[in-house]
Write a structure and sequence with these properties.
One of its GO terms (molecular function) is sequence-specific DNA binding. This is AraC family transcriptional regulator. Keywords: DNA-binding, Transcription, Transcription regulation. By secondary structure, the chain is of the alpha+beta class. It is 41% helix and 16% strand. It has eleven helices and eight strands. A hairpin with a 2-residue loop joins strand 3 and strand 4. The chain is globular.
Length: 299
């Protein structure tokens, strides 16, 4: 990329004071050091206003462009892999389930656009880029504490945007299956297999037997394709699955076996290492009404 162009670019970040949502408007060069594989305990709406990039979402890579909206479910691994144009302007919004539920009504469920199981849990939408910019025009007018009601008006604009997104999903006209960049078809199939069999041990030997390749090949290609070792990827998927199950069953003694762990002590150690808290502490934190606490990566 042209260095002069890089110097002219600036980052415009809006961080809301709310502990239930945050809004970021970014116009800068994507830093590969910041685009780490990551996940959240809350939802993300990622909108591209200008430029093109390659995005990784829960095991698959695809290109995004102006007008692309990603509805990213909590706990789905994702990252921007690379920037494909000089400019990449994007808006990403983080929302807790509690905020969406609290802003919903009997007739209007704002969380619905993130619903769905399996591969369709996170969604890709495509609309006219100018229309998307228009719908997001409110984000650069930050609430002013000296102006009575400005925070409420801002939040109302955010809710209107969420209503619009839900309407898009309901119409199904703007939802699209992105053209996946297949770097290694066999590894892609392994990732799908892992996602569908998280209650199994999922060892290298199991994959070697099912996919007719050596574990040395799997080890090398998995790291190359996902950025994780095979063991790291499986462990992250299992532990993220465990968090989902904990919210449902409220008991780690019930959950660990469903995630393919041979013993509770092994599960407890792995969970604490990944999330820096025990399952019991996670459940307590979740009951306290989960708040946004975002260590700023590129979304």
């Amino acid at each position: 990329m042209n260095t002069d162009k890089q110097l002219k670019k600036s980052s415009n970040v809006n961080t809301m004071a709310s502990d239930q949502y945050e809004v970021y408007h970014v116009k800068d060069v994507i830093s590969q050091e910041k685009t780490l594989y990551h996940y959240h305990d809350y939802y993300e709406v990622h909108a591209t206003l200008e430029g093109e990039a390659t995005f990784y979402l829960d095991g698959k890579q695809f290109d995004i462009e102006a007008g692309t909206i990603l509805l990213i479910h909590y706990n789905d691994l994702h990252r921007i892999v690379k920037q494909n144009t000089d400019l990449c302007e994007r808006v990403y919004i983080f929302l807790t389930p509690e905020f969406l539920q609290g802003s919903s009504t009997k007739w209007t469920n704002l969380e619905e656009c993130f619903s769905g199981g399996g591969e369709r849990r996170s969604k890709v939408l495509k609309i006219d880029a100018d229309l998307l910019r228009q719908k997001l025009s409110f984000i650069d007018h930050q609430p002013d504490a000296s102006i009575y009601g400005s925070d409420i008006k801002y939040e109302q604009n955010l809710i209107e945007y969420l209503v619009f997104l839900n309407q898009l999903v309901q119409s199904e006209e703007n939802e699209e299956e992105p053209k996946v960049i297949v770097q290694n078809e066999r590894i892609e199939k392994m990732i799908d297999y892992i996602s569908a069999n998280l209650s199994n041990p999922l060892t290298l030997e199991e994959m070697e037997k099912n996919f007719f390749v050596s574990k040395y090949y799997i080890t090398r290609e998995f790291k190359k394709h996902t950025g994780f070792t095979f063991h790291q990827f499986v462990m992250k998927k299992k532990l993220l699955y465990a968090k989902q199950l904990l919210k449902t069953y409220q008991s780690s003694n019930v959950v660990y076996n469903q995630c393919g762990f041979a013993s509770y002590p092994h599960f407890l150690k792995a969970f604490k290492k990944e999330f820096s808290m025990t399952p019991k502490e996670f459940l307590a934190k979740n009951k306290e009404n989960q708040k946004i606490h975002y260590e700023h990566f590129e979304a």
